[in-house]
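Morning!

As promised:
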Amino acid sequence: MSQPNAISQISAGENSVAAVARRARAASRSLARLSLEARNEILTAAAKALEGRAATILEANERDCRAAQPAVDLGTMSPAMFARLRVSERGVAQMAAQVREVARLADPLGRRLAATELDEGLILHKESCPLGVVGVIFESRPDVVPQVSALALKSGNAVILKGGAEAAHTNEALVALWRETLGQFPGVPMDAVTLLHSRADVLELLALDQDVDLIIPRGSYELVRYIMKNSRIPVLGHGEGLCHVYVDSAADIEKAIAVSYDAKVQYPAVCNAAETLLVHQGIAGTFLPPMIAKLREAGVEIRGDAKALAVVANQGVVPATERDWATEYGDLILSVKIVGSLDEAIEHINHYGSRHTDAIVTENSEAAAKFMNEVDAAGVFQNASTRFADGFRYGFGAEVGISTSKLHARGPMGLDGLTTYKYKLYGQGHTVDPYSKGEKKFTHKPLD
Amino acid sequence: MSQPNAISQISAGENSVAAVARRARAASRSLARLSLEARNEILTAAAKALEGRAATILEANERDCRAAQPAVDLGTMSPAMFARLRVSERGVAQMAAQVREVARLADPLGRRLAATELDEGLILHKESCPLGVVGVIFESRPDVVPQVSALALKSGNAVILKGGAEAAHTNEALVALWRETLGQFPGVPMDAVTLLHSRADVLELLALDQDVDLIIPRGSYELVRYIMKNSRIPVLGHGEGLCHVYVDSAADIEKAIAVSYDAKVQYPAVCNAAETLLVHQGIAGTFLPPMIAKLREAGVEIRGDAKALAVVANQGVVPATERDWATEYGDLILSVKIVGSLDEAIEHINHYGSRHTDAIVTENSEAAAKFMNEVDAAGVFQNASTRFADGFRYGFGAEVGISTSKLHARGPMGLDGLTTYKYKLYGQGHTVDPYSKGEKKFTHKPLD
């Protein structure tokens, strides 16, 4: 809804977040006018600029890494976080490659999603178009800057970025380079990409529902919860990733071990890693002992319910508590529960899950269909690791985030998540009056 | 996100709103399992029940109308609102016809929205599915009950309804009849439709983000604003309908008069009626005098800017103020502004509009394309009245509401607005590890 009075009351300076958002809104109107060729040309130029200015980026990153070193030494920054902060020469090349990848993707704009003849000469088109202005709030990894900037440009959106303080110089260098590239094209607004600097800026941004259409937080559970609680703007993201693997009575044991192991061990810190393993009682005796042995070998702590403990008594499994079923460990810890039926597994997941991604291992296609229809999650997998839930792996080219909301975008969000649609109606002076009076009738003929 | 602790802390009674929502959630799981045939069979039975029990519905409605009479006499209930409350025999027949119409619509569930081979034997489907539980809060018109119940059932959703107090008996009779119909089908939960009774119930409902997926308010600006402000659940609706008609310099005068007249006069109280007429200065001299004469004849009060006043000096036009451009009259009042260019018209609409529906009248297809691409609204029309923005007229069979949000659903919302999607991934024991190590590569081949 339009609140022109509210807008005119904002009297902040040129560099206030409100002014940034207003300029981003104006920029978004210009972006929406760019042809696919123009958008791809800019993306190619940005990829080249990344390569050509690798030294500047690495220098800025070196400053961030030096500044972070004391925190690493003190143990207040984890080695994993420090690793995500560091950008290598190969990292810059990958950024450029990703931007080129986005240039290669099909145009997400102006797609005809539906076409109907309402009556003779009265044609309705449903057509994809940009959202407008998107705010992306992320932590540490600076490669988010070119990735999100590329997706936003390709989809005709302006973007306002806020990265982690620890990556300030790197992010600044990347955004400066991107804006410079934009500036080289006549009629293309540099304000299509802006970087915010402080936490206070973020709070201001979250109130600007007139000029910002969507907020995407990427980061810790705490960050996402904070954003969701404080925003007047719609937020898409995932606060939690509590994924399950359910090993059905009709599972192939080899597949079950491979999928469960990968889902837990391959990268335990991420949201699409599994936290709970549900096992049908009919297969627990044959499946669990070798599974637990393999997981224990990889250093995984296993917390089992009473039934699981009975099955794998001597394998160093500790008792699970009610709390475990609701915990995203993000670490080499796995809770294990034995269930009496497929229904019990589905119920457990719908009660404790985070609607992110859950997998069933089974050779029984009926059981798979039931699980995949009834589990309420963005991703439901049969005989595949939960770790596949990712924009690149899904073939989206890149992702701006993963949504556990059911509205608008669900699961990994690529270009589609950054578009909306509008209805275009073409008439010949048509009025509603004769249809209301029954003098004319709608034909409602699908076209295409 | 799952908050099992929060859930278990709710210790309210069986009839609390929390308990209603929990039962609705359970019902939604059963509904999601019903085949298209089963859902359509229930709809047909509900249509028959409406016809067979018309007398009961009319009796209940008579009670509501009698109770409302004093308010009408006192002038606290408008005659228009009273008219919307009253249900005739023909009205009941129309309700039944609408339910049958929904039965005839294509299945919105299980539609394959995309299919990709990620690698050999690893297939990703994007498939439509129900949202789950939807809350619909509406005023006066009891025909919303069968309409929304039918759309919800067809799309596999449970629905929690709250109607206006003035229609309490009618709504109660309609919901009772609907639940009775559901109860006649084994395995179909009556809790698929529930009616709430008080404003306090609504406030409770708005906090239940674990069990309710979407809130759709239908009613006054105040109602919608109240819901949006107080909900922890996503809300889709429209708080305001400030629609524009822009008459371009290349407009056909006859079409311009017909479209503008229909958009203002045909039904001024509704959200898709026009509030502001923008006229290009090049055509104002020929278009405005006959237009204003026709509108004045229909009793429309005209508020013009200085330029408009100069053109139609003797036609009883009063001066408009800044406030007029931001006002949804919902009445026989129209503000008129003369603009110097198409760009000025677009800018005016993007600044003051409500992103609902805006029309251009022009024979110039380039001007139309520019207007339709750059105006930021759910509906952008060429040479057609804004009054066409409606689910029935768009061919959706019925509508649950109109959204001015850009996320999820935009414009009139039919069955599609009540669905989301999930990603189903079918593998053969696939793990992410070999792709991470570069031993395997994704094919990302589009299927179908």
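Residues 1-11 of chain B have pLDDT under 50 and may be disordered.

Hope this helps with the figure draft.
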